[in-house]
Amino acid sequence: MAISNLRLKAYGKINLGLDVVRRRENGYHEVRMIMQTVGIYDTIDIFRIAEPQIRVETNLFYLPNDSNNLVYKAARLLMDEFHLEEGVFIRLQKFIPVAAGMAGGSSDAAAVLFGINKMFHLGLSLQELMERGVKIGADVPYCLMRGTALAEGIGEKLTKLPPVPQCQILIAKPPISVSTKYVYENLHANELKPEDHPDIDGMIDAIYRQDLHGITARFGNVLEKVTIPEYPVIGEIKDMMTKMGAIGTLMSGSGPTVFGLFENPGLAAEAYEEMRYGKGTSLAKQVYLTSFFQQKGNKNMI
After folding, report:
1. Secondary structure percentages of the chain, helix, strand, coil, to 5
2. pLDDT 10s digits, 67-126
3. How far is residue 54's CA from residue 67's CA, in Å, rounded to a whole number?
């Protein structure tokens, strides 16, 4: 039976830990990261059209609607490989902060790969989609897998981990954009001291033990050493969340998004109100209160 349209959810992620192991000769950095999906998501509607073309529409005027958009690249990758004679119209509604270290673009691309595969009955497994996704971006395979995972290599080597304990997550993005390329180029991995590296193995152990405080005690992101001196507001948001009761705070990815974990729902709600409407409004442009999203099969894409 032909599928004429699909609505998909593309979930954002945060990094509970991010370590850079070394820089390869080709310029790429090898990393060890604990990736975690959160409840913020973009919505993507895919419509089958008769014309053999890809049309993209977004709710943000500054996003490209051509081959510079990752959703376009994802659709093109599968349509070219399988010589599809029909086309698609993709409507993207962005809610995940843009250029924020939350893999919004990669997650959108992952959802489109999943959607095209389902709509045109291509028969690709999740693993086969992940192998194709890395051609678009290093985070795309994880965004297809989702949940809690250890990412290694350039981020494409994934090991599934148990779900972390549920808690409240306050996410705040200051009104700045950070260049991932700039951050990595200015991180001198060979100059990092042993204490600069987060305890990724210890965090994995804490996840298996379901020890939330053990997890937050090992929060660490080596990219903060570059981003926070350049953008002190990131450190200010972390400090504010800690004062408001977060048991752990961290910058996600290369920034500038900051998240704080709360055990107490009441404190989390108060912190959200303060960040969104109180003194925190001078620091953060976008503020969300959410929770961890745990993968329960690809049905959660729809």
Report:
1. 35, 30, 35
2. 999 999 999 999 999 999 999 999 999 999 998 889 999 999 999 999 999 999 999 999
3. 9
Share of the chain above pLDDT 90, in %: 82
13 is catalytic: yes
Cα(83)–Cα(2) distance, rounded to whole angstroms?
Answer: 17
What are the distances in angstroms from CA 301 to CA 35, 46, 190? 18, 13, 40
| Greatest pairwise CA separation for the chain in angstroms | 58
Catalytic residue among 19, 118, 139, 238: 139
Name the 3-class secondary structure at 90.
Answer: strand
Share of the chain above pLDDT 70, in %: 95
- Told to judge if 193 belongs to the known catalytic residues of this protein, a careful annotator would answer no
Residue 163 and residue 177 in contact, taking contact as beta carbons nearer than 8 Å? no
The pLDDT assigned to 193 comes to 83
Q: Which amino acid is at 46?
A: I
In Å, how far are 75, 107, 114, 124 from 81, measured between CA atoms?
A: 10, 21, 15, 12
